[in-house]
Design brief:
about 325 residues, alpha+beta, eight-stranded mixed beta barrel, 18 strands
Length: about 325
């Protein structure tokens, strides 16, 4: 197996990917090839690799997962790999990037309101176009990321990476696992009435504002998962703004990658915790790569944000490993 000579660079709020189509199902990458493609010095450079292929051609799927895609009428699958070559169940930003790619490949409609069913290792997702496709620039998509599960608030202990210190974290499952940490609130909120759960969490943290964290080393989560988890650090910026919605800022350390400018499922996990702490369902969250909307109810999460095609690339050499 190998990868094609022609690949594409996509980004969704700074979460960047090397993507390609594999309609015949014979271009599954090796872990070494993924690591090479994602290397920012010796390869193309990306947070991950996405192969768009048919569900039956993804070697790690079982028949039940393939049948589930068939039941939904889902023809295409997002075979996503982290930069270290490991498999990932889901990537919220990746769903927007690969949908835009599918549109540009003529595999799905491009008009505003058109939807695309996409298989992932975390189930079938529906992505809806929220802006008409243009010749260049960002294209906005709303993704039903789907069901969430949250553990007890503040049960984990999360350290601050290279900076040290610790804070209580909360496990949120979005198809892939997250530990979400609230470390700060905006100055204008400190003088107002904060929910008791927020005050209690802040009293147990000695971490600074997310912008002051040093995430050059991976944060440790105790108790954590053997396969690891993404870690999100939050600042609560506003409550009751914009017709009752909230605003927050997030930084993220992704397992298998390191710190990234954005993490779609991490944004969703953050929205779940913020809703639990404040009762607010609708959030605008700022990340290093831009601003996204997260909508949460008692069962599901929706993520709205842009994606962009950056380049079409011809690889001079593809490692055969």
């Amino acid at each position: 197996m190998s990868i094609p000579r022609t690949v594409y660079k996509m980004q969704a709020t700074g979460n960047d990917f090397v993507v390609y189509a594999d309609p015949r199902g014979d271009l599954e990458p090796t872990a070494d090839q993924v690591r090479w493609l994602c290397d920012r010095h010796f390869g193309v450079g990306a947070d991950g690799v996405i192969r768009l292929t048919h569900p039956a051609d993804v070697s790690d799927l079982n028949q039940e997962q393939v049948d589930a895609c068939d039941r939904f009428g889902c023809q295409w699958f997002m075979d996503y790999r982290n930069a270290d070559g490991s498999l990932a169940q889901m990537c919220g930003n990746g769903t927007r990037a690969i949908t835009l790619f599918a549109q540009k490949q003529g595999l799905t409609p491009t008009m505003e309101g058109a939807s695309f069913l996409l298989g992932t290792r975390a189930g079938v997702k529906r992505i809806v176009s929220r802006s008409p496709m243009k010749c260049d620039g960002d294209h906005v998509f709303k993704v039903k990321v789907g069901a969430w599960r949250m553990g007890p608030v503040g049960q984990q202990l999360v350290d601050g990476g290279a900076l040290g210190g610790s804070a209580p974290g909360t496990m949120v499952d979005m198809g892939n696992p997250h530990a979400v940490v609230l470390t700060a609130v905006a100055a204008e909120l400190e003088a107002g009435g904060l929910p008791g759960t927020v005050i209690e969490l802040l009293a147990r943290t000695d971490l600074p504002d997310p912008g002051d964290l040093d995430l050059s080393a991976p944060p440790r989560v105790r108790p954590g998962l053997a396969e690891g988890q993404n870690v999100e650090f939050l600042r609560l910026d506003a409550l009751g703004a914009d017709n009752g919605s909230g605003r927050a800022t997030m930084r993220v350390y992704e397992r298998g990658v390191g710190e990234t400018l954005s993490c779609g499922t991490g944004l969703c996990a953050s929205g779940v915790l913020l809703r639990a702490l404040t009762g607010v369902d609708h959030w605008t969250i700022q990340v290093g790569g831009g601003r996204l909307k997260v909508d949460v109810d008692s069962q599901d999460v929706w993520l709205t944000g842009p994606a962009r095609m950056v380049a079409r690339l011809t690889l001079e050499h593809v490692p055969d490993c």
